Amino acid sequence: MATAIAALRERLGENTDLEHAASVLHWDQATKMPPRGAALRADALGTISRFAHEHFIDAETGRLLERAAAEVADHPADSDEVRLVHQVLRDWEKSRRVPSELAAELSKASALGYEAWVAAREKDDFAAFLPYLKRNLELKRRYVDCFEGYDEAYDVLLDDYDHGMKTARVRALFAELKGELVPLIAQLRDHEVDVSPLHVNYPVEGQRTLVDEIITRMGFDPQGWRLDDTVHPFATSFGANDIRITTRFTAEYFPTGLYGAMHECGHGLYNAGVSQALQRTPIGAGTSLTMHESQSRLWENLVGRSRAFSGVLTPRLVELSGGSLNGLSSDALFKAVNKVTPSLIRIESDETTYGMHIILRFELEQELLEGRLAPEDLPEAWNTRMEEYLGVKVPSNADGVMQDVHWSAGLIGYFSTYALGNLVAGQLWEKAHVDMPDLDAQIAAGELSGLREWLRTEVHQHGSKWNANELLPRVVGGPIAVPPFVNYLKAKLSDVYGVAFA
After folding, report:
1. 120 and 129 in contact (C-beta within 8 Å)?
2. Which fold would CATH assign to domain 167-497?
3. For the chain, which residues make up each domain, given as ranges?
4. d(Cα 477, Cα 331) in Å, to the nearest integer?
5. Does 264 participate in catalysis according to the annotation?
6. From CA 260, how far away is CA 235, in angstroms rounded?
7. Do 425 and 473 meet the contact criterion of CB atoms below 8 Å apart?
8. Interval 267-277: pLDDT, tens
9. What are 225's strand-pairing partners?
């Protein structure tokens, strides 16, 4: 007779199978599907979401959880079995509050909203996108209404992406971060750095070759990974042995494709590094989007835009440029890709101003959710705050309020994890240098396996056995904090600009 924990794992494995099937359909929609397939794709995703939700919240799952909890009561508290029961019980109790029909509606609206966003963004037509935004907000409010006992409505959505994180805590961290970023941006506003090497005509085929080489150094394995083109880069996986990443190439600005691929490859490494023992279970993936973004931001910026890696990157960047970057030095590249320049587009912004993009979205999301900002007034609010926070005038909604995919897919509560991920990346970077004093020398030699394996051991292999608030102290000795990231940033900018910071 199967043990209770084995029976529970098998039932949960069926849910994981359904989730992987839905993820394949999402991946296909964003990479291969013709636009006219959107309506039927939305129906398919809604059906899968409803079946998966009903299967998970069924009383049988509760009975198996109860039996499994008794069976592992004397197991070590850190064992896979105990942590599986703990995390699944928490998710089961939360999911039971949400009607299956609402789960299906949320999934369907996400798929329809994505296709509407792609078309509306291309035409710079916010009015065409507005009904889909309203629908997603309506559904998210209904979702929040399924719960009680929260301090702020936004807590419910934030918890979906970073379990245990509270809006008040994010607000305090962002206030501290903003207090550091604003004077940094102001101090460097009038300092010049030559960024012309970033704006040459760079053959896309050369970019593809470069990206293939760089992500292979990072750990991309063609036997278990794919890289594809998309409108808005993302990463997904269907287990540790099937990793899908994407990027977007443009001939006029090669950093989009290069650093976008490094960013998504960082996500992929997290998914690929999860222990095989956790596969096909709810804890067989990254523990939160904050931790996930710490990995992508770390590889994109702390490694990819470092002085050490610029020395590795520059020779091949020049060779594959078709002559447009002849004579480029690694010092010039390092300085160009780290220039502090307030800009329109979040995914192309520098590390210093990036946090202000996220703070703006964090504020607007709460106002939309709580009804303090009408969706019709969102472009005006966006444009006003972009000028206030970054001194940037927004020329179009396509490059303004519609630049990101998230709201089209109903991913409200997601944005804050990007900036929180920056903070965690700073903490991990600091600890990695303590554990590997020669890390910069390794990177300068083009050897990235040391950092990759350190991250796999400390973070990746554990999947979501612990939430971010539990995992981070195990790795760095304390909770999420602002100073390590700010200290790293000031050290880098001091090198770039030759100035001192308080």
Report:
1. yes
2. Neurolysin; domain 3 (1.10.1370)
3. 4-148, 167-497
4. 35
5. yes
6. 10
7. no
8. 999 999 999 99
9. 243
